[in-house]
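anyone seen this seq b4? input:
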Amino acid sequence: MSSSDIEKSLKEIVIDVLDIEDIDGFNLYEDSKIDDFPEWDSLAHINIITQIESIYGFRFSLDEVESFNSIKDIIKSICSKI
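predicted toks r here
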């Protein structure tokens, strides 16, 4: 699975968890920072992580979860586990 595929999957998860209504207008890129999304609070962060873990069938460590600052960080961590 390529990082592009992971990015698409992650975008779907984020749209779902953040309850984004304007799907076509929502942009999520590898270089996006988590802080770029005001809806992405600590609870949303845990829900996004939980969905990723469920879809890909692995668990992140607490240190990994706390270190995620950008979409790129999450994608790199997913790539290292699959």
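The two ends are 8 Å apart (CA to CA). The chain has one domain: 3-81. kinda curious what u guys think
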